[in-house]
Each structure stands twice: as structure tokens, then as C-alpha cells.
Amino acid sequence: MSDARDDRLSRRRFLGLMGASAALASGCSKPDRGSIVSDAKRPRGSTAGLADLYATTFQEGLDSHGVLVRVREGRPIHLQGNDLHPLSKGKAPMRAVADILRLYDPDRLRQPLMGGRPASWTGCNKALFDAVAAKRPKGKGVLLLTGALVSPTARQLVADLEKAVPWLRHAAWEPALPDAEGTALRSCYGSRRRARPRLDLARVIVALEADLLSPDKPSEIAGFASSRTAGPGMSRLYAFESGMSLTGAKADHRFPWRPSRSAPLAFGLARALAANGVPLPPGLDASCLAPFDLERLAKEEGVDPRSLSRLAADLQEARGAALVAAGPSLPAEAHAAAFLLNAMLGAESRTVDASLSPEPVTLTDSKGLRRVLEAAASGEFEAAVFWRANPAYAFPDQDLWRAAASAIPTKAFIGLHADETAQDCGLILAESHWLESWNDFEPQLGLLSLQQPAIGPIFDTHQGEDILLAVLAGLRPSLPKNYRDYLMARWKSEVFPGRAEVSFERFWNACLHDGVFSRTASPKPARRLDQKAAADAARRTSSGTEAGDRAAGFELVLAPAASVHDGRYANNGWLQELPHPMTKLAWGNAAAVSPADAARLGLADGSLVELSAGRRKAVVPVVVQPGQAPGTLSACLGYGRRSGSVARGVGVNLYPLLQDGSGIVTGAGLRSTGGSAALPFIQRHHKLEGRPVVQRATVQGFLAGKERIRRHASMRLIPAQRFPGHKWGMAVDLSRCVGCQSCVVACQSENNVPAVGPERVLKGREMHWIRVDRYYEGAPSSPAVLFEPMFCQHCDDAPCETVCPVAATNHSPEGLNQMAYNRCVGTRYCSNNCPFKVRRFNFFEYAADVPEPMSLAFNPEVTVRPRGVMEKCTFCVQRIDEGKAQAKAAGRKLQDGDIEPACAAACPAGAIVFGDLNEPSSRVAAASRDQRGFKVLEELEINPSVTYLAGLTNQHHGG
Amino acid sequence: MIAPLIKMPDLDAAASTVWELLRQGPVAAVLAAGACAVAATVLGVGWLTQTGRLARGFAPVQPIPFSHRDHAGSMAVPCLYCHAGATRSRHAGIPDADVCMGCHRVTKTDSPSIVKLKEASDTGMPVAWKRVHSLPDHVFFDHRPHVNAGVACQTCHGPVQQTAAVRQHMSMRMSNCLGCHRNPKPALPPDSAIIKAPENCNACHR
To answer: Are A212 and A238 in contact (CB under 8 A)?
Structure first.
């Protein structure tokens, strides 16, 4: 730009002068650019502007996962898996990544409350001590109702408390965890130790109503993905299920199947195997299997009987590498049948491994909890403490809960939010988030995983263990003063090997650094199936099936939602906006009905129906789900919360329909109310219309060269774009992708992507930079499902760039389709011209709606976009820049794998590969040369930088 | 569309217009004169307060009157001793109080400023320094490549070692960045192999 041109009053200069004047008029005060607050004491090794990673552990339900927290200037901003954790292997479950938002949730309790008023911790601790432990209150008991206590040290603490306070009654309860599996484990193996399914070792997998690939199981997804390489060792997945799950969607053979027929099917397979010469467990009376006939079952469920006999043959062939899994919602008999099959197939200690499973967590089953609450209602408890338990929302029998609550005079609550239960309690103790807490876990015998705070408590909160420790310390003054010291003391005495060469402090710091500590543990001997229990289960099944046949109505399967789980994450906007992986419904739940039933009853998406289980009823919208088994309904728990500014009123609470600790309601009623609701779907079109946008092939056909991936021959008239330095590209392996949407959440957290709410999703204004498209192929009664993660394809000849009137979007010399927010004037031409619909427009000032302290969750490396600008996937350009700058500062060449976008880092299946296409040895270059590779909408000649690898399925010969 | 607007007004024509209006009535004349005055004020104030004009030389009063002239000048403490992040991180960083106390535990301990500093180090309540250089939120300047390429700190920050209070030396306009990115030679050491710096959007904006 020459000086002469500068001096003229150009358009730009005129606007600049006007702007400067306006800025002066609006801010005509003493110029102040704010403050830079340096650390008083900077932690050693930490540099301003560089992220620190801390290893900690995320726990949910019965499972724990090793994670790394990315901390910038003292605030956690992102979560990823801990690669030193031998089970997590660098992958974090989706909800752990999303839970960073709950840390900064403005609805969190900010200080302890007594009688609704803010109180001091000293006062509250004393009040809790007086209520619980000071003396036996009027000869009555005290109830401690908690969630599952998984941490060995927390269990120790509660056990100590029970010992010190003999009138304390502890019950641990997980609302969305049915009893059946535990019951079956106890009766068949004598212990509730759960086995770990080894999907990486299994060659034939049978999932009975079991979602093995749900996003809270990253290691299972990783194991499955590793077994999907084309070749003779490729696994084959059979799924029998009512509703369409991710497992069913990925299955090579999926059978819409009523859950009540799962146990008969498994026993029928056992019978067929026995008939083919597979030995039954010694002592098992073969006659108990006689009533189970595969052919009759197949006819009942409308399935080709030959496919079931082929399955039996396949299982027999894969003995030692076969795996049968029964879902948690199935009755105990189905679990027993699965155990029997696994025993016959030699799966024990191979594909079903319990040798290193940790001691089972004590849980109170639904009958036990009912007894506890009945005792409470009859006035047995003078006081109660609720910790991470929300019976006022999730206990199905709310009449009993209300009676119990009103009969307990003193109620204390420990938790993050003032939830439904807290509203009944006089003493509310604000709990710290797990990212502010200490703990330890033992996900496997000999493997200890530590939880450490990544940030000091944001509010005036204490972690639950500290609150209980304060009660215990009132009786035993010699105890450590805080839970961290209690934890360290326990580690010093029980975990520290005590060798002389390292001090405990060094050992402890090393464990905190790694997040895990492994010690040798002697594996437990292989479990032995109690043949009598299995035979009993078979007999109960044969009599029960006949009785069940007489019951009219639907089989309703209720399971925790993939996003908000059992309701504990319902106040998280990211998870509310994350659509259901199959229905793609965001912000709420719906009952999935089969297309046949919908046609029969005159229902369509959004029709409101009244579901009934006994005398309890709920009105929910309906979603017509291709592949749903006729006669069944599926719906998610976790919605319909009555508290939380985000969660309140979203969806319908279906816990009241649950019965007897089972996840399945048999004989459920469905009545159309005639009304309908507009449902906020993220995806509204479900067919491919014959276009090869997503491609797949059978592994046999592909390897034999009979099935080819459709490519479009280029008819280019102008020379291709040239990128002499780096050329960034991505490859997505659709064989590996299971559609879990972990990438969506990771991207949202990394790139400051806002959640917009149901009204705007209804208008198609969601902001996700990456989405997982889901398509159905084939008959709606039993379709094939195809997933395709879709995000900016960074086309070399991008159609969006040519239409931008202000050149706000253009191409970088490294092949990135870049977006300059400060240039964008919001014409949205680019979005109109994008064939992938991946550009998102800020219709509102979403960042301004972010309540404090939630803005602390923002990634400081990514611009927070204002209203009126377009945005889209950047290939995580901030990570590219950081990777390049770090390599340069270290004086080395950039290596493949140095740069990993958030989606690729989060993908548990390892389906997304990123790198330099100009580097022939890079993984992404190899993947883009793969025979399975294709580009989406290749015929448009826009040259996307993203290669998709066609998904392979491994059907049994002959279909 | 803008061009006719910004053509300098024909004064004669304007005067005759005003005259016409005056002849038509005093209210119209006042309105026209007011509009002219507003336009003149807006353009005038705008010209006087351009980002590049007022921003340069900005030197706020700091909570502790730290002198770069004494430290970086007379005592020749290297810049990177305190701003150690500049080679490793996007931010050069402001040293924490403990770095200062490394010397000041024994040097000038009774100066009121050092007492203030010691207090920060002892209590953990950090010093809130006044920001001198401020970039818009959509600009992601990275110190690393600049410092590692051999660009002297003074190229952008001016002769800091000669000034008592830090002042903004460079205009923070994009044209300033681009000027150097297009022709980086003058800012680089003579033996540097770099002939060009990136000019694409993502180099600074993301």
C-alpha cells in the first residue's frame, strides 16, 4: 500500500474516521486498557499462554475413566483422555468432556444454606454432626442415601462412619441401573463382579438389547473399531434389539427383537449349540433347554429362521473368540442365558474377562430402596443425608417418596445443584465439582487411578467426602483434617510399596503426575457358572414367556439418555443440544415406535401419546423409528427435570413408569391424545436418494474386487490448486465410526461453539461445527444405518469463497478454508453456496447470553464470535498453529501426529485422522490413497480435503 | 456508492445553498448549519483520534513505577530474563512477584514500591499491572515466531531500555503488521533466511 493511496480519503479511511469518532463518543473517558494480572507465584514449569495438563479421573455410575484436564491460566477449558491410563488409552467418555460446562454452571450451589439462608461451613458442619452423629436421635436411625460409591477410599470413609455411628443406615442407589445384571451375577457366579467385554478379541459378537458401543464406553468402542479392519480377522456383530441403538446401527446383522424374547433366544442358541455337539456346562440338565426352539422364535419375530441357525453355526465356529452380551435392561434370566452361552463358547477369561474386575460396588436394589423408604415413611429415621442422590426426581413411586420425606424431620443434602431433593431439605451443603475434588478409583485390580483438583473451588463449596469426614472427625479427633490428607494417609499405609529408595512424597507426586498407579495383582480364578442357577433361569423363562404372551400392550424399554444420562447432566446445554444418536432429536425425549405400529395407530413424528404403566401415566411425543421392533417402544430417561434453568421442563420424566428395578415395562399402554408437538430435530431427511454421499461395501465383495467404491472421474479444465508447503487434510474411516458423537462435544468445547436452544434448533439454526449425519437404507422395518461425520470439507476450490462479497472466507496457502470473522458482514451467501451445509450463522449474540462464570469455559485460543458473522470448522487451526510454533521453537520438523484436532483426539474409535497430505508417509496421506476412499459430492469438482473411507460390513455368507 | 458522499463539498455551491435556505427561513438554516457542524465535528474528531494517532505513546501510570531504563538499560538485564515466555509461548508474560523478589529480597528493600512487591509475594495477592498494548480479541499475535526469528523486542516495543515508563511505540493497526510481514528484511538479523512472513487470515485470526 503506497503512501499516496493512503493519503486519499478512501472508503476504508472514511469508515475508519467515522468509527474512531463513534468510539470516542461512546467511550470518551480516561483511556484504560484493563489490567494484566501476573501470578504472585507462578507454578514451576507453567508459562502464561501455554496449557498445563493435569491427570485426574472421571467417575460415573460404576465406571471411572482416566482423563487429562487442559488448564489455561488456572482454569480448566478442555478434557481429553489420559494416554497413560491402561484402560482409557487416551480416550475420554463424551459426557466427561461435556462436564466441564457443569463446573462453571451458574446454577450451582454457591455456598451452604441452612433453612434457605446462606450459612457458614462451621455452622453447617456442626448442624450435620448434631443431626447425624452426636447422639442416637430419640432411639431412631439416620439414613445416608448416596449414589454408587466407587472410590475405595470414599467407601472406606463411609464404612468408618457406619462403624462410628451405629444407628446410621447407608443405602447406595443408581436410579437408571436396573437390578437384573447384579441379581444374575450373584445367582450364577456367587459374586456381583462384572466382567469386562473384550470387543478387541471377539470375532463373533452377539448383543442382546445391549448397547456395547454407547459413548460412555470409549474402550469398548476402541476395541470394536480395532476389529473392523478388512481381512479374515474382521469381527461380525449380531444385534437383537427393540429400539435402534448404536450397536444395532453398526451390526452386520440386526434383528428387530422384542426384549422379552431375548432370554428365549439365548437359551435357544444354547440348545442349538448343544445339539451341534458343543458341550453344555457339566451338570446342566439339557432338558431345561428343550422348550426353546429357534425356528418358532424366528417365526414369532418375523425373522428368517435360517439366519438364526447360521448365527449358531457362526458362534460355534468362533468358539474362544465369541462374545454374548445381555443389556442391563433385560431380566436376570436373559443375563443367565448369556452367561450360559459364554460358558459354552469358552468366552470366560477370554472375551469376557472378570479376572481383574474390581470388587463389586455395594448397591441397594430397587426392592431394598423401597424397604428403606417404607421404613422412613413409618418414622424410623430421625434424620437423612442425601448425597449425589435425587429420589425426589428419579424414584419411580413419588407417593412413597413424599411420605418418606415428610416423615423424616431433619434432612440434609450434599450436591452440586439445588435439585428436586434439595428443595425438601433444610440443610443444603454445597458440594464441589469433581474437577475440584480429590479421590481415587480402582477400575481394575491393581490399577489405581487418582482424582485431583484441576482448579480450587470456584464457589464456597466442600467436596462430599470432606463433609462426611468432618462428621466423622467430630467422633474421632485424631483423623486427618481434610479428605486429601485422609486419602494420602490411606495410600501411605495401603498403596505405597514402602521401598526405601523413594519417599512417599515423591511416589505420591509421581502418581498424581501420571494419574494412575499400577501394581501387581493376582488375577482371580475364572468364574464358574452355577449350572443350577442357569437351569432355573431357563425354566423360569419358559414358563414366563407363556405368561407374558397373554399380557397385552407394548414392551417399553427405558434407558438413560446417551447425552444427559440419568438426568444428572440435564442442566448442561451442550448435552441437551447434542441430538439422540439415532432419532437426531435434541432438547427432549420421545417414545420411539416402529413404522408398522405408527401406521396402525395413525402416529407421526411429534404426535403426543399417553404412555401408561399400571396406573402411572406420562404424555410424550412420538418418533417413528425405522428398525424399531413392532410391539415395542423405546424412550430415554433423564429428562423432565423440575429444577435447573436449562433443564427445567425439557422433555418428560419417565422414571415414574419404571417398575421393580427393571428397565422394561411389559404391557405398557399407548393411547393417542390427538395432539402433536414440534420436535427440534437436528437432521430431518433420512434417505440418500440414491446418491453415493455415504458408501459402504461388504468386506467379501470388496476384497474380491466385486464391489467397488464409486468415484467420479475428474473433468477439470483449469489446473488444480497448488499447495507447496503443508496441505492439511483429514480422513474419516466409516468402518470405524460408530456414530457416538463424541467429536461433536469435543469440538463444542474446543471451539467455543454455543448451544442455541430448542426454539432455534427448530428453525435449523444450531451451531455445531461437526455433526454426525445418519442415513437409513432399505426397508423401514429393518433398515441399514450409515453414519457420516460432516464438517467443513476445506475444498480446494471452495464454492463458499467465490461468493463472499468481502473476501471474508478465502483459502490459506496450507489448504485451509479460512474464515476471518472481523471481515464477515453476514450476507450468508457462503452458507447458501455450501453443498455440505456446514456453515453456521450467528443469528444472535450468543456469547453475550453466556452467564458468569460460564465464560471461564471459553478456549482463549479461539475467537468468541459476535452476532452477524458466519463460522465453521477450522480444522482446529489454533492447534495447527500451536503445533507448528512448538515444533519451530523446539527446532525440529513437524511430525505426523503432532497436530490433532479436537474431534480426532476425542474419537474413541480412532476414525478421524488428520495430517499433512503433502507428506507421503503421513497417516492421512496413506488413508487418502486407500481403495475405500471417496469424497462427498465429488462430481461438483470442488476437491474437498476430506477423504471418507467407505464402511465395510461383514455379513455372514449368504446374507 | 460511497464516492459521491466523500467528494469534498463544493464550497460555492454549499454557500449558495445555505443562502437559499437562509432566505427561505431561519429554522431550515439552523438545521443545515447544524448538520454541517455535526459532520465537521465527526470527521474532525475522528481524524484527531485515529487508532494509530492516540494509541501510540499510551503510557498509563503503573501500580509500581517499575523502570525499564534502570533494569533493562543501566543494569542490562536481558528482556527474556523477566519475559521468559516470549520464546516458548504466545505471550511474553509479565514476571511474577517472586522473580522480582529474587533480587529485591536484598536490594532496595525499604523502598515503598518494593514493600508493595514483597506484600504481593508474601500474601499471594498479585500486582495488577496496567495493560499498555491491547489487540482486538480476534487477533492472535504470537511472540514465539517473531522472537525466535531474531526480531528484536525494540522493533515493536521501541527503545524500552531508554524509557522509565513503558509506552506504546507501535501503532496496532493491521497495516503495520502487514507492512513488516510483506517485507520482513529490515526487522530481521542480516543473516536471516526469511524473506517473507505469512499474510493469510489464519496467520493471526482464528
So the answer is: no
Question: Which residues does chain A have within 8 Å of residue B175's beta carbon, measured at their own beta carbons?
Answer: 1
Q: Which three cell numbers stand for residue A229?
A: 479392519
Q: Name the amino acid, one letter, at A607.
A: S
- Cβ <8 Å between B94 and A38: yes
Instruction: Tell me, yes or no, whether A615 and A655 share the same domain.
Output: yes
Examine the pLDDT at B50 and tell me if it is beyond 90. Answer: no
A812/B202 Cβ within 8 A? yes
The dihedral formed by the CA atoms of A548, A552, A553 and A557, expressed in degrees to the nearest 10: 0
Q: Any idea what the CATH number is for the domain that residue A624 is in?
A: 2.40.40.20
Provide the pLDDT confidence category of residue A713 given band limits of 50, 70 and 90.
confident
- A740 and A782, same domain (yes or no): yes
Say whether both A633 and A756 belong to one domain. no
Q: Where are the domains of chain B?
A: 3-49
Cα A560 off chain centre by:
10
- For A304, the grid coordinates are 428368517
Minimal Cβ distance to B47: which of A17, A38, A818:
A17
| Coil, strand or helix at A181 | helix
Q: Do A47 and B205 touch (CB under 8 A)?
A: no
Give the type of residue at A356: L
At A425, the amino acid letter reads C
Whether A821 sits inside 8 A of B125 (CB atoms) is no
- Count of helices and strands (H, E) across chain A: 30, 38
Residue A202 lies in a domain: yes
| Contact call for residues A392 and A405 (beta carbons, < 8 A) | yes
Look at chain A and report how many structural domains it folds into: 5
**What integer is the mean pLDDT of A29-49?**
80
Residue A588: partners with Cβ closer than 8 Å, 6 or more residues away: A621, A639, A650, A651, A652, A679, A680, A758
Residue A38 lies inside a defined structural domain of this protein: no
| Block residue for cell numbers 431357563 | A538
B174 CB near a chain A CB, below 8 Å?
Answer: no
State how far the Cα of A80 lies from the Cα of A99, in Å rounded to an integer: 12
> Nearest Cβ partner of B93 from A47, A816, A863?
A47
Residue after which a domain boundary falls, among A328, A353, A378:
A353
Place of cell 437562509: B22
Neighbours of A501 (CB within 10 A): 5
Local structure of A703: helix, strand or coil: helix
Encoded amino acid at A552, one letter: A
Instruction: For residue A550, give every residue at least 6 positions away whose Cβ sits within 8 Å of its Cβ, in sequence order, or none.
Output: none
- Residues in B touching A888 (Cβ below 8 Å): 144-145, 148
Structural domain boundaries enclosing A337: 195-353
ipTM attached to this prediction:
0.84
Q: Both A343 and A388 in a single domain? A: no
The x, y and z cell numbers of residue A937, run together, are 459430492
A100 lies in some domain: no
Same domain, A706 and A826: yes
CA distance linking residue A56 with residue A719, whole number of Å: 51
Q: What CATH number corresponds to the domain at position A301?
A: 3.40.228.10
Question: What is the spatial distance between Cα B153 and Cα B139, in angstroms, rounded to a whole number?
Answer: 19
Residues of A in contact with B42 (CB under 8 A): 17-18, 21
Partners of A719 in beta bridges: none
Q: Is residue A544 part of a domain?
A: no
Question: pLDDT-based confidence at B126, cuts 50/70/90?
Answer: confident
Using the 3D structure, point to which of A303, A332, A353 is the last residue of a domain. A353
Both A826 and A857 in a single domain? yes
User: Which residue in this structure is represented by grid cell 509421581?
Assistant: A510
pTM for the model: 0.91
A377 shares its domain with A347: no
Comparing C-alpha atoms, which of A411, A404, A402 is closest to residue A383? Answer: A411
Same domain, A349 and A367: no
Touching check for B4 and chain A: CB below 8 Å? no
Binary contact (B47, A821; C-beta < 8 A): no
pLDDT in tens, B80-113: 999 999 999 999 999 988 889 999 999 999 999 9
